[in-house]
Each structure stands twice: as structure tokens, then as C-alpha cells.
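job 3f2a | input accepted
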Amino acid sequence: MANILYFGDDNPGSTSAQRAAALERLGHKVSIYNPAKAVAGILASSWLSPVHYRTGYRLLQQQLQLWIKQLINSMAAPDLVWVNSGELLGPGIMKILKQMACQLVLYNNDDPTGKRDGRRFDLLLQSLPYYDLCVVRRAVNIDEYKARGANRVLLVRMSYDEVVHMPFTSKDIIPAAFRSEVAFIGTWMRHEKRDEFILELIRQGVPVNVWGGRWQKSPYWKSLEPAYRGSVLSGRDYVAAIQGAKICLGLLSKGNRDLHTRRSVEIPFAGGLLCAERTSEHKEMYEEGIEAAFWSDVDECAEICKQLLAQDDKREEMLQWGMGRVRSMGVGNEDVCSKILQVVFKTTEFSEPTEKVLL
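job 3f2a | predicted structure (359 res):
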């Protein structure tokens, strides 16, 4: 088993920490360090943090390089360095890590070659040639990473966590605070128009409830406030809100060029009925009308929600088929992490320099 030096968010509620835990469940030794904590005082500043975000963290590199040097000088060389997200680790840091003479893997949830996040990923994009393997979630990233010097690019599906997202043994034990007819769990984003979509569903008579951060910033907040149930959910509360809803909406981030999201797999695994935008990837993943419900616009979404709310047996049947389907796809964190390590350590042979592992 591998000795893994893991750089990423170590907050237990983060997907980064969940992947690190999955690697440990697979039997590997994982030492996790959060680069953001090395510059925590700066990033905690309400005025400095936005400046560093918009300048791609360039001004933090000297401090982070010193931290990295001290860290690796105090430990034995690992078999693998796993970098989650990676926007804080620029080329200077990657040169230091390269001296450890081990495999370097980048795993990024976002869309660094897209335009949504401005300059946030500038240093990451400059660092791509230093990684032995870059793992991406969007097909459009493959050629864009290669054009920026990435050596190998591996495409995988979004993943759920086998432990964190395990459904409750019975819906009866889910607290009333997390029960709803139709639920959307996600963050308000200025340019995504999620607020307009939710508000239109409500206007058409769909009983939607919302959990998530930043919704108070919406210009429609006064109209949306009665539907708002609370801020960001994590852990068992997140699972309870999914499993406690009759229907769960899956809204995409167009700025992130999504064709499916983590919700696309977390919702069915956690015992929810996925009702999401009809895309090529969603149609590959689930049989429409059998394992999940899909729509192309808000009017179709409203009609589907109304129909499903009136059909208890149909909803339960779709939910069960969706749960079975997502489990058969092999897109849990343990499944995906295992496949990544197989590619890194060449225990699986591939004929092409760029692999697509759409499990």
C-alpha cells in the first residue's frame, strides 16, 4: 500500500477530506496537510482574501514555499503526492515537490480552464506540466489541459462518498426539519439564475424548499425567503435533507460548464429522487423516467414535479431504480480513488495517453 502525502482541505465536511478518508479505507497511509492553513491569517481577512483570489495567489507563493520546504524536510519521501484543487501551489512549489522523486497527482473538482473563476487558477494552469497525472471531471478540460502542457489527463465522473452519504436505514427517523416536497440544496450564485428558476417553480405551484449559502444576496430574497430552510448542509443533515425530500432538484453551473454535478450521484446514492436538467451526460448515466427525471426548461421541470408529487408509487419505484443504478456505476470515492492509483502506478494498461474512466 502507498504512503501518500495529501495536500487539500482537511475540513471533515469537504470533498477533499472525504477523498483522503477513502484512500485510508483502501488501506493507504495518508498524511493530509491543508495549504490554506499555512496562510490562514491572510485568507481570513475580509479584504485581503478577495485580492489574493483575484490575483491568483501570486503574492502568497514565497510564504507557501517556505512552508512546503519545512514540511518535506521533516518527513520521509512518500510514494505519491496527491494535490486536491491546487490553486495555491504554483510552479515554484511544484519544483520543490518534484525533488521528492515520487508521482505527483492533481485532482480538481472545478473547471480551471473555464472562465467562471477569473484568475483564481492562474498558477495551477502554469503548474500542469509538473504533474504526472491530472484528474478532471469535465470532458472539455482534457484537450485544454493538454494544450497547457499536462502529461496525462484522466477523466472521471463526479463521485459520492460511500460512508458520508450512506442513507438512513429508514425515512421514519429523519427529523421533520429536513423533510420537504421538493428540495434544492446548493449555493446561490450571481450569474447562474438559480434564484429565478426556483422562484418560477414556486409561482407555478411547485412547493420548493431551499438549503444553501448566500441566498440572502439574491435580489429576489424577499420572495424566496419563505421557501428558505437554512444554510449550508453537511454530514448527516445533508443526507437527511436529500432522503427527506420527495424530489431533489439537480441544477447545473453553466459557468463551470457542467453536464452533471456531484448532486447527480450523491442524490440517488443517499436515497433521493434526482430531477435534473436533461444533458448528454445525465442521459448516459440514468434511464430517463425510470431511474431519474429530466427536464429542459423551468416549465417542463414544474410539470414533472407536479406529476411525480401526485404519484407516490412511481416516485418510490424511480428512487429505488436510481439507487441501484448509481451503485452499479462504480462512482464512489473508493472506486474512483482506486482507479486513479491503478493508473498512477500502471497496474492497469491503457492504449491511449489520455484516458476516459467514466465508471
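job 3f2a | Residues 348-359 have pLDDT under 50 and may be disordered.
job 3f2a | closed
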